[in-house]
Amino acid sequence: MEKILILASASPRRQQILKQVNIPFTIRIPDIDESEIKTKDPMEKVTELAKRKGQAVPISNSNEVILSADTIVAFEEQILEKPNNRVHAFEMISSLSGNIHDVYTGVCIRSENREKVFAERTKVEFWPLKKEEIEAYIATEEPYDKAGAYGIQHYGAIFVKQIIGDYFNVVGLPVSRVVRELKQFGIYPNITGDN
Questions:
Q1: Which of 33, 70, 102, 194 is catalytic?
Q2: Which ranges in the chain belong to alpha helices (H)?
Q3: Which GO annotations describe the biological process of this protein (predicted)?
Q4: Residue 87 and residue 193: Cα distance in Å, rounded?
Q5: Cα–Cα nearest to 145, from 48, 33, 55, 13
Q6: Where are the domains of the chain?
Q7: Alpha carbons 23 and 15: distance in angstroms, whole number
Q8: What's the CATH fold of domain 4-183?
Q9: CA-CA distances (angstroms) from residue 190 to 16, 18, 22, 99, 112?
Q10: How far apart are CA 10 and CA 166, in angstroms?
Q11: pLDDT of 160-176, one tens digit each?
Q12: Active site residue 31
């Protein structure tokens, strides 16, 4: 029987990345309490969040494979969550201005009889930013649903001087590693484009 991928995420960015590499999936949104995870270590936290999200979605039959992920932005080992308001967003982006920060995405892939959990880290360097640039950006809706208060795939791209690592990891899913791991679970991209 053909394996079926279940994406345990409401993120439109993760959905778009999977569509880009032509992996069909259905969505089941996990319900977890993220505040239960107390660690301040970004790699530990993102890995645990991905694992809990994946385990919160039940497997209905032996053909299903669950994919869950979580992305965290950290600067000087301090985790930058989604901003609460404009002041918070301004402070976050100001702290990243002219500096290098880390983006971690934790991933959990599981089937009935196995589980794989891993995390990828990408370094992102911002140009030094003027106050007006930051204010113009936080006036958009973009920063408020994103860790670190920016999205590299939209307006936030203009802040980025360089990245070291996987671009898609910053968007929310390290797709090249994910595809390689999914193959071990019997899920493959349809790179011919045939449906």
A1: 70
A2: 12-20, 42-55, 86-96, 131-138, 167-171, 175-183
A3: nucleotide metabolic process
A4: 45
A5: 13
A6: 4-183
A7: 10
A8: Maf protein (3.90.950)
A9: 15, 11, 5, 39, 24
A10: 22
A11: 999 999 999 999 999 99
A12: no
